[in-house]
Amino acid sequence: ARLRIDFDHPLRSGTLRVFVDDQLALEEPLTGQKRTKALVFGVHAGSSRNELETPPGLHEVRVEVRWDENVRTERIVGNFRSGATRRLEASLGRIRRDLNLEWK
What we know:
Elements: E1 2-9, E2 13-20, E3 23-31, E4 33-38, E5 41-53, E6 57-67, E7 70-80, E8 85-92, E9 99-103
């Protein structure tokens, strides 16, 4: 089975970590490009697309995002079928920086 993670964020820089059943499956640096200027603040946007091999069956996926002195973590459970790919859409909010996970 495969896990595809599509992650969008408003960060200049940070780190994305993905755990499957509490085992680290992915760790990658995040970077964002300056997109627009809102009032006096620059707005950044970035994305990450990854596919991971996952054993078939029921698994807990934990996504952790770190930047500056901040950490956001969310968990979601999914059933993975042999030979199939499940897509997890993850996003970090622009204002409150809430981390959202949703199966697509």
